[in-house]
């Protein structure tokens, strides 16, 4: 009788240690995928190669949802991440002939600029984040389409392709060299740096933060600018992986970027959560995607399942946090 | 003497009423003045003589948009946001187009009622999920966006289906009373009057405004908050169903992606139509006008030979600008902090 954990205990485990539970979920889905794959006669899925592939695939989503995490910690949301990464991807192939350094530089700079535009709207003019980022996303996509109609030689530089799609030491994807330092920086930065603490403070209670002397608008500006920069970096990895850019390259990542953050336990209302959870969220979604591919699920089924999972996890978190308060 | 005084008093009273009317509905009046100005400009720009045909074409394009704006407006003024409006419209669109293909006109009309009822139930389900799970509106509706879009893809993978010709004519050709009043606009007005005017001043209708203004105050005043929130989303679903059917009638086919543009556009029309994103303020007349304005702006840009993608840029900039100005106006009044 006592071996069965009671509901409050489960709740507490989930509320206090989401990382443990999320890791279990990740491993669980991985094992499930392995079983399904074996059952279909396609051999094992739980191999070092597939683990490596999962990390390779997850890096794009990981970077995009990194910016999303920061924004959501302040109580906002960034719906421009997908088009910003498309912009990054497009600029790489547009300026690829000028060398990889220049192309990456331009892509990241424009990403930062888009982020700053979002930040100015939200922080200075206090436009609702949802509207601001959707509006900026619309504007960016329009300008991008106009640019794409012009004649140019498109080329994805070799360096970008290497980073985005290849591995060293047989199993380590190059894109981990980008993702891992960024992840470490964000996780540690959120915990130990001044700006990191201010991000939580602003998300928890903007008015109290302002009265305590935090320049709220500066914090918001930095957060949205970083989100733009990270999304453009995700676009660089994405174009390296696909070896070509089209104007829809980033859009499938929009809901997953929010989903990864929500699954990772960051509250949409801000002030609660962190990037470690998001990383696990991105990994979980990536394996889930493999599982659905193996199951031969149609696009329709896939979308419905995605939506339902986001909903279910958000509901569980809402319960867990309500219980711990 | 007394009659003169009464006259003056009446004049003052009338001026007061007028001023109050302008102050309360200034934004909406502004939207319609803008629409009028745009129509006059449009009239001056066309090479061929401008006539009822042009009004008809505007109405065809604007009808689905106006319904989307209505649905979004009800949710926003009750303090939420519905990102699933567009994909629910797609679903209503493909379901109606798939099954109406071989129906008679009467059957199609009856089937439309079923689609509308189904959409309203789908909307109510969204509302129920927000209330029961206590998850933020934006997350729930974002998730529902994908659920409905997936369902629409499951019904029709590629654009197809159809509707009886007479059903299409309801939106595309018919006029009511004069040739200047397309039946599309008449349908919109009837839907507005039947669905909204009758409810707005009743207890449930006032509940919507109350929870948008302040949820806790509404609760303390005895408003059934959960029920009102579900009602708001049911309304959104209802209008999304009408919007999807309007798409079917206007285009003659079903397209699983037909509704997707209306998610952002409906929010834009609602904001431009004077509904506060904070909730509790505004109506449906403003957003309907704004939907016509935004449709006409696009028509005009195409007419002027502007790259359609710049039209998109312009629309995005307009939305942001309107919200910025609206936010400043609210802060001037001292409502927001």
Written description of the protein model:
The complex is a heterodimer of chains A (325) and B (337). With 325 residues, chain A is an all-alpha fold. Chain A contains 14 helices and 2 strands, in the order H-H-H-H-H-H-H-E-E-H-H-H-H-H-H-H. Chain A has a single domain, classed as ABC transporter involved in vitamin B12 uptake, BtuC (Orthogonal Bundle). Chain A has a two-stranded antiparallel sheet with strand order 1-2. In chain A, helix 4 crosses helix 11, helix 5 packs antiparallel against helix 6 and helix 7 crosses helix 11. Chain B has one domain. In chain B, helix 2 crosses helix 11 and helix 3 packs parallel to helix 5. Classes of the chains: A mainly alpha (325), B mainly alpha (337). At the A-B interface, helix 6, helix 12 and helix 14 of A face helix 5, helix 11 and helix 13 of B.
Output the structural class of chain A.
mainly alpha
Using the coordinates above, name the CATH class of chain A.
Mainly Alpha
Instruction: Please tally the β strands of chain A and state the result.
Output: 2
Domain count of chain A: 1
Oligomer: heterodimer
H and E order of chain A: HHHHHHHEEHHHHHHH
- Beta-strand portion of chain B reads under 5%
Cα radius of gyration of chain A in angstroms: 20 Å
Class derived from helix and strand content of chain B: mainly alpha
Q: What integer value in Å does the Rg of chain B equal?
A: 21 Å
* Averaged pLDDT of chain A: 87
Q: CATH topology of chain A, what is it called? A: ABC transporter involved in vitamin B12 uptake, BtuC
Count of separate structural domains of chain B? 1
For the report, how would you describe the main beta sheet of chain A? Answer: 2 strands, antiparallel
Give the rounded overall mean pLDDT of chain B: 86
Helix-strand string of chain B: HHHHHHHHHHHHH
Shape of chain A: globular
